[in-house]
Amino acid sequence: MTSLTGKPISFWIDSTAETTYPPLENNISVDVAIIGAGIVGLTAATLLKRAGKTVAVIESRQIVTGVSGHTTAKITSLHQLIYADLIKQIGEQKARLYAESNQAAIEFVASLVAKEQIDCDFSRQSAYTFTESEDDLEQIQDEVAAALKLGLPATFVQETSLPFAIAGAIKFENQAQFHIRKYLLHLAKNISGNGSYLFENTRVQKVEEGNPCQVETDQGVITAQDVIVATNLPILDQGLFFAKTYPSRSYIVAAKIDPAKAPQGMYIGSKKHSSYSIRTTPDNGELLLLVGGEGHKVGTVTNTEECYQKLENYARDRFNVDTFAYRWSNQDMVSFDKLPYIGNLTPFNHHIYVATGFSLWGMSKGTMAGMLLSDLILGQDNPYAQLYDATRATPFLTQQSVKQGIDVASRWIGDRFKGLQSSSFSELTHGEAKLLTIDNEKVAAYRDEQGTVHAVSAVCTHLACIVSWNNAEKSWDCACHGSRFSCDGKVIQGPAVKDLHKIVE
């Protein structure tokens, strides 16, 4: 296999300065504690502080370096192909609310950028879902009809600025794209002060509802009247969100492209699987082409380097780019009923709120979630609250949910038999990772290129599934619910809040 090129870091993160917000030092009290400093948390914090509430935003590492920092950063209500299906599944009225809520999120961002003059490469763009196959044209045309019925800015087109022919596409006008981290860092800098706080390197371990609620962290306790858990998948195991969603991982490569040859607009293929996401972004007077795709359920692909390789091959073939500047991956929770969960953690919680299940479209849905949650806490009516109610009855027994449930169960049992014949670190070659069984304990071991062995417990600290190796990211990933850990066992992504136990060689 050809070695991968490009810096293994998100462009959004690499092109902005590191943040240095302090960790929590003393126990404090605020009106609202917000766990997670991504697009949901920072949007909600901005609105709540503007309404006169004191807030504390708590981030386990650095702000906007998690899911929000690894997105494609498209702000659109065109979510591949969804509206024809939504009308069939939940009816025209609810599908219209879904459309309107995502359009409202676009306009919220646009308005805030204009009002506060946020320097974040914001630009209005048309969004397209395209197909190269005549066989898929009917599906595209059905989506156009459904979108128009719901009042969306849809048209059917057969020509685009892509450098290859398409059979047809649905086009939404007046959508948008931006530099997500520049946007959110602007929101973040206005949080602290006047009784409000933003903390980094502070990991929340437990939340207890009460009057007030108690948020226990590794640095101290925060008391708050209300708590928002905005951690992609809630770190709290109540509400069964880990059973109503599944974690999906996807990949992005970025290459410099001649502006004269670059496509105008934002694109995604119509296929549920094997589709590619395409957009450009400014980069210091030059232009970067971002190509994303090769998505899969977390932990089901070990040779993730191959995912990047396929993206590079596609970009070279279709856009005639040569070398790549960046490569990174991202992870999101996919909702079984296509709708995000936004609202109360459970029917019995009146002060703990969650937002999850954005199904890879987190820029519009995450913004909308921040708007909705701030309304709920402020006691204001929101027209979308019932549609996205996090405690709603969910159709667990869909074909997809049954398949994912069986997969989780089989992994919980079957993965325990992996590595039973391997019992020595000496079996590891340089750059290799394996599941071993040492002294009857399941061990996740990686020998780095310098020969050092990094050994940790292979049992995920969330709900005790066995982790799998991700060779491109050099991480241990849990296929059950999406927790991720460094080769040294440090939590990279929840719902786990505790590191993997280190094993001494």
TrEMBL record:
One of its GO terms (molecular function) is monooxygenase activity. Keywords: 2Fe-2S, Disulfide bond, Iron, Iron-sulfur, Metal-binding, Plasmid. The keyword Phosphoprotein does not apply. GO terms for cellular component: cytoplasm; membrane. InterPro entries: FAD-dep_OxRdtase (IPR006076), FAD/NAD-bd_sf (IPR036188), Rieske_2Fe-2S (IPR017941), Rieske_2Fe-2S_sf (IPR036922), Rieske_Fe-S_prot_C (IPR005805), YhfW_C (IPR038010). The keyword Cytoplasm does not apply. Residues 420-505 form the Rieske domain. This is FAD-dependent oxidoreductase. It comes from Dolichospermum flos-aquae CCAP 1403/13F.
